[in-house]
Amino acid sequence: MPVDAEARARRLLIALLFVGTALNYVDRQVLALLKPTLEAEFGWSDQEFAHLGSVFQLSAAFALLAVGWFVDRFGVRLAYGIAVAVWSAAGMAHAAAANVSQFVVARSVLAVAESVNTPAAVKAAATYLPLTQRSFGLGMVNTAPNIGAILTPLLIPPLALAFGWKAAFLVTGALGFVWLALWIGGTRRLAPVGVAKKAALDGNWAQLLSDRRTWTVVGAKALTDCVWWFVLFWSTDFLVKTFGLTQAEVGLPSALIFALAAVGAFSCGLLFPALLKRGMSINKARKTSMALYAVLILPIPLALQAPSAMAAALIIGLALLAHQGFSTNIFGLAADTVPPARVASVMALGGVAGNLTGTGIIELTGWCLTNGVGYWPMFAIAAGAYLTALAFIHVMQPVIRAADEG
């Protein structure tokens, strides 16, 4: 392929991964944003809403046990395309649900298909993007959930108020099929780069689970992903209950939270390469970047004492900025240090861990609210999670080295 055409194909790949990941989070966030409306229609309690969230997390966790193999075995193009088609159909199926059981079925299918997204995106970056573009590509991919999360609270409540809650699920699901047509046509000319050219399915489960690089990613995801799931699933409810917001009023502060999160993901795509250019090693650049983000999240408990919804959103948004910057570094750590043929499997295992701890914090929140404890335990967990994760990473990999360095 000519150089210019190859460069265009890679830019298109980044764009498609960005949009696909944004849609992934649009579809999963619709339920949380419509909680007040659905709660009134179906009579859900906080604990029942927590259980519905747990169904999603556990379904995704169990699916991720096979997702890594699925993506590594069949390749990014086919695996990701199938996943988007299935999760888009499942998202639209929510509109047909008439009771909690039917929501559970639709939510479970959505979770299984959406679990493919992150392993496939990281695998695509590791396979098709050179090291000089990979960090930027991963930064854009990790920015995408926040763009989806910014647009969703701005668009979904007005759409639901104008046309009913079912329209929200139908419209967001249909967008996935538009993306699928672009994916099929836009990725046909991509060619693997670097060591990925020679990579076959590398190793077995014994090798995967005996590698410290695998457990570094798994542990870091377990410690930090729970914070993301807590904010994604419960922040709307926190703002509504704490500040008395209506369904129509909650969109702007929710959008602010995820706008700041987008800055965090994008900033890592710029910060890490900048540190490398200053002469830092991969090890020092990754850990310095992670340390900066870990410190930024420490003030999140102040949201509990905020004087207004926008002030609370600003504090929570700063924490999500830190989360996304830290999370993008975890993605980069996996893409840089794990052999390309194992990347999707390692990210899938990390996703399992993150979904399980996400289930735990979602259930803990439901229990705390039901029993009058309030939101403070979850904010305290969030504040300390990232320094703990950084310490874990340093213990597991005192010196981070690129995969092709041994």
TrEMBL record:
The chain crosses the membrane at residues 52-71, 78-97, 163-184, 215-235, 255-276, 288-304, 310-331, 343-362, 374-393. GO terms for cellular component: membrane. It is found in: Membrane. SUPFAM superfamilies: MFS general substrate transporter (SSF103473). Residues 13-401 form the Major facilitator superfamily (MFS) profile domain. InterPro entries: MFS, MFS_dom, MFS_Na/Anion_cotransporter, MFS_trans_sf. Keywords: Membrane, Transmembrane, Transmembrane helix. This is MFS transporter. The keyword Membrane applies. PANTHER family: HEXURONATE TRANSPORTER (PTHR11662:SF285), SOLUTE CARRIER FAMILY 17 (PTHR11662). GO terms for molecular function: hexuronate transmembrane transporter activity. It comes from Sandarakinorhabdus cyanobacteriorum. It is a multi-pass membrane protein.
